[in-house]
Amino acid sequence: MADDTLISVQDLRIHFRTVRGTLQAVKQVSFDIKKGEIYGIVGESGSGKSVTALGILRILPPNAVIETGRIMFKGRDILTLNDRQIRALRGKEISMVFQDPQASFDPVFTIRSQIGEMVRIHRKVEAKELGRHIVDLIRSVGIPEPDIRKDQYPHQFSGGMKQRAMSAMALANSPDLIIADEPTTSLDVTIQAQIMELFKDLARKLNVAILLITHDMGLIAEVCDRVSVMYAGRILETSDVFSLFQNPRHPYTRGLIDSIPRLDIDDKALTSIPGRVPNPLEPNPGCVFQPRCRFADEACSLGVPELFPVDDGIQVACYRVQQGKI
């Protein structure tokens, strides 16, 4: 890994064993995240984004199997850690902000007790020091009157405040990486903007790396430094955010961006990507996007294209792009 690389995911493959057969959820996924970087993974529902995130923390369901891969974090392969070592890592060096904050909090305990438990799991701290630390955490994520709010229960917080409290819990042990899985799905647009501004502040001021999992291209454009586009378990394009929106290379990425409403073009009709996501129980022998791609030719159905560099820091998995035909 490069000196500034915090985590490197290499050739990760995750399958699920089901009564109908083996479901290939994540296929040969690779990416690096640098210290203090906000890295996005974007794609449709079912593309494997959340499974990738859960695989990093090894909190997959019992029927999931990590077939191959390495997840190098600060010089250690997470996949080789024993149960004690991975528990010590979770919540301390890598934290996660889940999609539904309502389901992430226990309704019968105060916010203070739940954040405090996160701290006590990983280190010994005196009660007074812990109390001050919790107030500082709540204040740092923009929750007003932290001295009062710390003793309240989750039902007394709005959706946006719960998400901020989840962020405070994620920061409790000064992690190096925060994984945010669809953190703004249930929030209105104003609160979304506030949460994204909070994430940008964390990366800028505390040098925390953030892995943002989302289906929202707008959030990617607003906060991320680099991004990988996932489809049917594979990464189809990796790029810096500016280049991705200025000049998307993969046909799927083009389709995603063309489907975004534009306020600056009055007569632009919304477009959609024809077809549907392939059945993960019946993998396509060729490119996963080939059945829906208007540029596909015979070669696209014969083999799976791998990511290849097309420009500085930009990689695309497409035979047609590689041949310079699109």
Could you characterize what this model shows?
The protein has 326 residues and is α/β, with parallel strands linked by helices. The protein has a domain of 227 residues: P-loop containing nucleotide triphosphate hydrolases (Rossmann fold, 3-Layer(aba) Sandwich). Helices cover 32% and strands 25% of the residues. The protein has twelve helices and twelve strands. The strands form two sheets. It has an eight-stranded mixed beta sheet, with helices on both faces. Strands 2-1-4-5 form a four-stranded antiparallel beta sheet, covered by helices on one side. Strand 9 and strand 10 form a beta hairpin. The protein is globular. The mean pLDDT is 91.
- Globally, the shape reads globular
Spatial separation of the terminal alpha carbons: 33 Å
| CATH fold type of one domain | Rossmann fold
Q: Summarize the main sheet.
A: 8 strands, mixed
Order of helices and strands: EEEHEEHEHHHHHEHEHEEHHEEH
- The chain-level mean pLDDT equals 91
**What is the strand arrangement across the widest sheet?**
6-7-8-3-9-10-12-11
Q: What is the number of E strands?
A: 12
Structural class of the helices, strands and pairings? alpha/beta
Rounded to an integer in angstroms, the radius of gyration calculated over CA atoms is 21 Å
**By CATH's scheme, which homologous superfamily of one domain applies?**
P-loop containing nucleotide triphosphate hydrolases
- Approximately what portion of the residues adopt beta-strand conformation? 15-25%
Low-confidence stretches: none
Short description:
This protein has 326 residues and is an alpha/beta fold.
